[in-house]
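Worked problem 6 (solution included).
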Amino acid sequence: MTALSSTLSQDDRDAIASAIATIETHLPFLIDLVTEERAALPKMGDKTRAFVEKAYEVGATNPDFLPRWFDVDEMRKDLELFQDLNRISMTLTQLQDLIDDTCMLAGSEAYTAALTVYNSAKTNGMKTKGMEAIVQEMGERFRKSNKVSASSEKK
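Solution. The predicted structure is:
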């Protein structure tokens, strides 16, 4: 596994925040659905996409049989928006996966380093004035998790 040795400068953090704000600015119509709304909507996936595209072609070339209230142009706009947002979503999903994996590795490396510090402090630092209280404080992280797992095992 690759070791990670990177940082983000304040300029980089600011630029990333600005880029995200720019994306949000260019998507002012984004909607935040609640769980019930998401569940109630018919979903368009890979199989459904071909059906929708074919239905649009049929409706656009044969508008005479459609109900008067049906707006083919609105269907085209919805389909194009779906296609555009789906491309953006796939790109952002890939980026999110990379960020998640890198965050996990950075956290793992930081935690592993913290364990080394803690174990070294327990083993070698107890002779240093005031270190015992610090080691005990750091050790609370392990005592709490042991109490929780011990109590859940009794149930």
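Discussion: The chain has a mean pLDDT of 90.
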